[in-house]
Amino acid sequence: MSFIRYKKFGNKEYAYEVTSYWDPEKKKPRQKTKYLGVVVDKEKKIFKKKSRERKEKLILDFGDTYFLNQFINRVTFFENLKKEMFLPLIFYRLCYPSAMRYARMWYEGNIVRKFFDVDISSQRISEFLEEIGDESIQREFFKEYIRQITPSEGIVIDTTALPNQINIPRSSWGWHNEEIEKQIKLLLVIDRSTSLPLFFRYIAGNIVDVSTLKATVEELSTLKATVEEVLLTLRNLKCKVYEDEIIVQELTKQQRKIFEKFSIMVPKSMGI
Questions:
Q1: Beta strands 28-41 and 46-48, pairing class
Q2: Cα-flanking dihedrals φ and ψ of residue 76, to 5°?
Q3: What residue ranges in the chain does DSSP mark as E strands?
Q4: Which of 55, 56, 86, 97 is at 20 to 30 A from 145, Cα to Cα?
Q5: What are residue 214's phi and psi, to 5 degrees?
Q6: How does pLDDT run across 72-127, given as a tens digit for each residue?
Q7: Among candidates 80, 185, 186, which has minimal Cα distance to 137?
């Protein structure tokens, strides 16, 4: 049986729930008390209990990386890759195209640290880039990648000269910007309709372009600007990290529109 007991201290009145029960050990009735809070309306039994304030541990960048992570998880050819290192570096280069030595600083302030527990120091990055730079690994990747993608309306092949003075076998003399320079060429194949990259390889600088179907700087620049604008909009979406929970701030109308376009649900909170 329970009842409410009221006590007044100073100008405030406090309510307590008192419950009677039988103590089998001492063989006599006893009472236990539960604090309900400050009395707001005694007749309606409305009480206000001061909630324990939670202290946030971190405030992290959330929107851009969460969007990329949700989107890229739909692509099956990433299943066989080392996501723990590969995806954080992709996200870093897309969101903050800066030197790799700053990647760890970005990682510490981004929600990506909750998605991937990885050592993203300069040394580990160098080792990883050396590993994926192996041509046999690249061939295996494209073999699996192209198997899952069918160009919709043909392809575009473009080669770009990369002038350099590095003493490596593929660096050769070639024609670039109306001058003869030592260079390497990057060949890129993209889907003509979607602009999705299909294949790339580096070739010697003295090999003349075989064919270029259709690729203009204006089209590629426009596409790049659009991607950057989207990620910049989502970058402003932050989250607060508590001891046992991550709280995502309220989305703006523009941010919500982007997530809805790609059918990505953004939770209001996430467990840790």
A1: antiparallel
A2: -70, -25
A3: 2-9, 12-23, 28-41, 46-48, 58-61, 155-163, 172-176, 179-191, 197-204, 238-241, 245-248, 269-271
A4: 97
A5: -165, 115
A6: 877 665 665 666 788 899 899 888 888 888 999 999 999 998 888 888 888 888 88
A7: 80
